[in-house]
């Protein structure tokens, strides 16, 4: 089954908590603090696996969570860092932030590897809080929390040549003749349900990858049929091989079909119409009036398409000539990276642990935010030593100065979550 889009939840590991420990030796009456730091939480990394060709694995597993760092230990022993969580994806996968749709990374090269979420830092043990005036701190720092994000994985095939055309014009037959691919071939009146890839390797030409792109029918750019799901696969191709059924056996006008397909490309992305197109009149073995071939060629040439070939994929007539034309065209077209605008990319928010202050209807100065949660988790407000550290952090982080700027006076109440206390300068 070919799956080319998937939504998953990823989460990096929390940092390990710092340890609270003291030396406990028989002949040491006042052992100092010796709590070690916690370990770092695991990162979440996406890495290209060239052997993968679909996002099928993510249909059954949609949540990926890295391990937390270990807690600190006694004797200043640091907790172990958690291992990195590597998520393997196919070559050509784009990672997007699900909420904004912005691009986090485009893994389009072999060996590409990107850190999407970083694990939380480990908390400091109580040994790090010892000072000449606070020689036995009985508190430690909790580990920093990891990050969590919903991402969309979007696979865009990496093919040199993309096959275009309405259903039943012979794309799958050409792919089977020119490569070792084995697409389903029959007189279908509907489009192929999934893309097919094949490698063309003939004597005298450089090998290249060709893809049968399904779903390109009238209205595809607006979501008719399966088109909107598969038009993305054309974006990376360097040459478009546009096949029409010149026999008109299905009752369709080949020239009208040619115009309709190009109109869908234009509606989807304007630059797709600028890609070099090789036009192929297929099923010439079923045409008895050769004037039809000349008439179609003249109309297409008038639109600026000079490379027009005759072929019968069923009998093999003209297949080699078409493949060689693709190889020659590719030699003159450099491999280009996908072009993005600056606003296409996801920009992470400023680092966590911020706070905001407002005055409620009772005149209480309320300090809230992730900074508050972290600070209260680190101390025991019923312990005098912890409380002194608590006030010092408020001063160091600028909270007390911000309260002064807002006009706080002695005796006013301050609330951090469920903890309230009076302010005195």
From TrEMBL:
Subcellular location(s) per record: Cytoplasm
Domain spans labelled OBG-type G: 159-331
Pfam families xrefs: DUF1967, GTP1_OBG, MMR_HSR1
GO MF term list: GTP binding; GTPase activity; magnesium ion binding
BP GO terms, sorted: ribosome biogenesis
Binding site for Mg(2+): 172, 192
Signal peptide: none
PROSITE patterns tied to this protein: G_OBG (PS51710), GTP1_OBG (PS00905), OBG (PS51883), OCT (PS51881)
Enzyme nomenclature, EC number: 3.6.5.-
Homology family: Belongs to the TRAFAC class OBG-HflX-like GTPase superfamily. OBG GTPase family.
The name this protein goes by in its record: GTPase Obg
Gene: obgE
């Amino acid at each position: 089954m070919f799956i080319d889009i998937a939504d998953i939840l990823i989460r990096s590991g929390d940092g390990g908590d710092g340890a609270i420990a003291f030396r406990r030796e028989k002949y040491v009456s006042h052992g100092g603090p010796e709590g070690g730091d916690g370990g770092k939480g695991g990162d979440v990394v996406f890495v290209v696996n060239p052997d993968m060709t679909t996002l099928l694995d993510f249909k059954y597993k949609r949540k990926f969570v890295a391990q937390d760092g270990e807690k600190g230990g006694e004797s200043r022993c640091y907790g172990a860092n958690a291992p990195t969580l590597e998520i393997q994806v196919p070559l050509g996968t784009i990672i997007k932030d699900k909420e904004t749709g912005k691009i986090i990374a485009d893994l389009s090269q072999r060996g590409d590897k990107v850190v999407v979420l970083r694990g939380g830092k480990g908390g400091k043990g109580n040994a790090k809080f010892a000072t000449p005036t606070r020689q036995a701190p009985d508190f430690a720092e909790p580990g920093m929390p990891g990050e969590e994000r919903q991402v969309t994985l979007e696979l865009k095939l990496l093919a040199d040549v993309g096959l275009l055309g309405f259903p039943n014009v012979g794309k799958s037959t050409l792919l089977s003749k020119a490569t070792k691919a084995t697409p389903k071939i029959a007189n279908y009146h509907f489009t192929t349900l999934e893309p097919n890839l094949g490698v063309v390797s003939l004597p005298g030409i450089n090998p290249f990858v060709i893809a049968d792109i399904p779903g390109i029918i009238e209205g595809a750019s607006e979501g008719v049929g399966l088109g909107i799901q598969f038009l993305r696969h054309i974006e990376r191709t360097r040459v478009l091989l546009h096949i029409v059924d010149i026999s008109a056996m299905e009752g369709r006008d080949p020239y009208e079909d040619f115009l309709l397909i190009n109109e869908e490309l234009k509606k989807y992305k304007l630059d797709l119409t600028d890609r070099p197109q090789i036009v192929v009149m297929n099923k010439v073995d079923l045409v008895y009036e050769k004037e039809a071939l000349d008439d179609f060629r003249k109309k297409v040439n008038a639109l600026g398409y000079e490379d027009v070939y005759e072929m019968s994929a069923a009998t093999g007539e003209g297949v080699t000539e078409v493949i060689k034309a693709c190889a020659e065209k590719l030699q003159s077209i450099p491999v280009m990276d996908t072009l993005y605008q600056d606003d296409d990319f996801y920009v992470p928010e400023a680092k966590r642990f911020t706070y905001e202050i407002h005055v409620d209807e009772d005149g209480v100065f309320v300090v809230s935010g992730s900074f508050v949660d972290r600070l209260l988790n680190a101390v025991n407000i019923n312990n005098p030593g912890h409380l002194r550290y608590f006030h010092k952090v408020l001063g160091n982080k600028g909270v007390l100065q911000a309260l002064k700027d807002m006009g706080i006076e002695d005796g006013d109440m301050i609330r951090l979550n469920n903890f309230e206390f009076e302010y005195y300068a």
